[in-house]
Design goal:
single chain; 376 residues; Rossmann fold; seven-stranded mixed β-sheet; 12 helices; 19 strands; 26% helix
Length: 376
């Protein structure tokens, strides 16, 4: 192993000095793992060196492991198809190969906590799509367009957990991307309360219509745990960083209703926001039009927020792949006169911006801030 060193990027922000970082995908055979593989296939900063999954898949080629389960529209990438899948529990075998891991494991909370800690303790950066570490005050839950500053907690995490070069960062629940990003440029108007009705695609449950045929022409008006996540995770994202970790914001009050609908990809949110003093329609549209964050990162869209003026947009089939799935599409803006409130409809891709793509972008942000180490 080479001497561990902070990763540096070139001044143009598009390439890394010293070559690509070595990446392992944990939970590579599941739907989010497949999305990671698709996104990272030709990434300018990352090279996939290991694919890991359950003991049942270990030893098979990746093509064999996902046979009958591959859910992406493109074929299995040729290089990855012949890679042998490793047992995700064989940390001592995987950790010497990689600089960082993307985690999309389907395990219970206790085992996720153990595994992610074990990889971080070995010196690897861990970016996780699991919920297990989301409530840890020392683990940043990063939507880069909203709270990239929360990466400042990583040195405190390393001190508290005894990590050297390793660290853990998590993605938020996929459903909140469709409105939290849209609210970010409006927060200085003083948000008092949020009500959101979220209609979530079946791929958010790791399913397709082939594997879940009973969802065709159907709706399930309950998703276990989803409403609670939607009500508390934005408060951590809007919280403050200190030496004792991230302290969640005391408000605004959020009330969420989450249902599963007959759409393959795309979480749609119908949002009503109460302000101390509501912005005008022109102010809202201007804030959305001018909202920008990216810092020259490879996965950042040219614009995070796209407003659609047609009265019947956004629609998952038409709009979920805006900016390759890395943007939020907004429509149906209404300013409620005399109520200090606005309402709008938001749409985001739950597997891309809400999961794998957002995790890759957040990791790029961590690299840009000099927090990720090259190990191999």
């Amino acid at each position: 192993m080479a001497r561990e060193e902070i990763v540096q990027r070139e001044s143009d922000g598009r390439s890394l000095a010293g070559g690509k970082l070595k990446v392992a995908i944990l939970g590579a055979t599941g739907m989010v793992g497949q999305q990671f593989l698709t996104i990272l296939e030709d990434h300018p900063w990352f090279e996939i060196v290991a694919l890991a999954a359950s003991p049942e898949s270990a030893g098979k080629t990746y093509a064999q492991a996902v046979n009958g389960r591959w859910a992406m529209e493109a074929d299995v990438p040729a290089k990855a198809s012949q890679m042998k899948v490793k047992d995700v529990q064989r940390i001592e075998e995987i950790s010497p190969l990689a600089d960082l891991v993307f985690c999309a494991l389907n395990l219970d909370k206790e085992n996720v906590l153990k595994l992610e800690h074990a990889y971080a303790a070995q010196g690897l950066w861990v970016t996780s799509n699991n919920s297990a570490n989301r409530h840890d005050p020392f683990v940043p839950m990063v939507i880069p367009a909203v709270n990239a500053n929360h990466l400042e907690v990583v040195p405190f995490q390393r001190q508290a957990r005894g990590y050297s070069t390793g660290a853990i960062m998590v993605k938020s629940n996929c459903s909140i991307q469709s409105y939290v990003i849209a609210l970010e440029p409006l927060r200085d108007f003083g948000i008092e309360s949020i009500r959101v009705h979220s209609e979530q695609a079946i791929s958010g449950a790791g399913k397709t219509f082939r594997s879940w045929p009973e969802m065709d022409k159907n709706l399930i008006p309950f998703i276990g745990g989803e409403e609670r996540k939607s009500e508390i995770e934005p408060l951590k994202i809007w919280g403050q960083v200190g030496p004792d970790g991230i302290v969640a914001a005391p408000g605004p009050k959020i009330k969420a209703k989450c249902v599963r609908v007959s759409a393959l990809h795309g979480h749609t949110a119908y949002v009503r926001v109460k302000f101390k003093s509501a912005p005008t329609e022109a102010q809202v549209l201007q804030r959305w039009e001018n909202f920008d964050w990216g810092d020259g990162l490879p996965s950042a869209p040219s614009r995070f927020i796209h407003y659609l003026s047609e009265p019947d947009r956004p629609q998952p089939l038409l709009d979920v792949l805006t900016e390759k799935g890395m943007a939020v599409s907004i429509g149906q803006l209404e300013v409620e006169e005399g109520e200090d409130a606005i309402s709008f409809t938001g749409l985001s891709h739950n597997l891309v911006l809400g999961a794998a793509g957002g995790a890759v972008l957040a990791t790029e942000a961590a690299i840009a801030k000099g927090l990720v180490y090259r190990r191999v």
